[in-house]
Amino acid sequence: MTLLLETQGLVAGYGPSPVLQGVDCSVRAGELWAVLGPNGTGKSTLLRAVLGALPWMRGTVRLLGQERSAWEPRELARRVAWVPQLFEPAEGFSGLELVLMGRSPHLGLWGLTSERDAALARTVLEELGVAHLADRPGEAMSGGERRMLLLARGLVQEPSLLLLDEPTAFLDVAHQVSSLARVRARVEAGLGAVAVLHDVNMAAAFATHVLLMRDGRVLAQGPVDTVLERERLEALYGLPMEMALAPSGARLFAPRAG
Ligand SMILES: Nc1ncnc2c1ncn2[C@@H]1O[C@H](COP(=O)(O)OP(=O)(O)OP(=O)(O)O)[C@@H](O)[C@H]1O
């Protein structure tokens, strides 16, 4: 499968000392990578470094076979979509308009959206079960509703690679499942995706691969079934964990109480 993202020896930070301490990773089409790790360990920093949004970095980042710095920004925006962790100002825009912003890298000189763009945005809103937000003003939306629109904006961009920073934060369990299921469906159809997640069980259910990060380093990475293990999670989070098999065969992880 096509190599969409590759980092080698990625060292990056904000202040004098690096956050990322030499990260090697690669993502192919048809893979959904969950990035797991404790707070402040560098998961978001990894995504930001991939996007080139950090004060300084060393090592290499290749996107779709080309050094990131060699990409023309607009061309790159057609291929790589970013679903950020934090809300952006949404006031003054309807839900449909917010989602249509994802089409900007594809628009012509005048930046006008077409009927096809609007139809695409409405399809994605329906796919995510939030069609009712199309005409709602941004200021009248809940945190979770805005998050669903951020995901819709990323999908409507029709990227080859989708980077998601805690896409399920603020979502109820049904919306967590529906949003990750939609991403996974796109991945089955050839998208590559990287999602920072905190819910180990969501990662186990929807990811194809996991990257475990601690203190700016990769602790382990690879296919979800082999890498996501109780002992590794104990080392990752520094607390005792339990693992049980559900009747469906799914593995369930939980911190050991007491
Ligand atoms: N803009 C910034 N300027 C300076 N330091 C920053 C900045 N953003 C993050 N950091 C620091 O870099 C480190 C890694 O942060 P990062 O956001 O990558 O962690 P994370 O693993 O995504 O954490 P969380 O799970 O809490 O979101 C933290 O120590 C954080 O305080």
UniProtKB/TrEMBL annotation:
Pfam family, one: ABC_tran
Top-level taxon of the source organism: Bacteria
PROSITE patterns: ABC_TRANSPORTER_1, ABC_TRANSPORTER_2
Keyword Endoplasmic reticulum: no
GO terms, molecular function: ATP binding; ATP hydrolysis activity
Domain ABC transporter intervals: 5-240
InterPro entries cross-referenced by the UniProt entry: AAA+_ATPase, ABC_transporter-like_ATP-bd, ABC_transporter-like_CS, P-loop_NTPase
Keywords: ATP-binding, Nucleotide-binding, Translocase, Transport
Function per UniProt: Part of the ABC transporter complex HmuTUV involved in hemin import. Responsible for energy coupling to the transport system.
PANTHER family: HEMIN IMPORT ATP-BINDING PROTEIN HMUV
Name used for this protein in its record: Vitamin B12 ABC transporter, ATPase component BtuD
Source organism: Hyalangium minutum
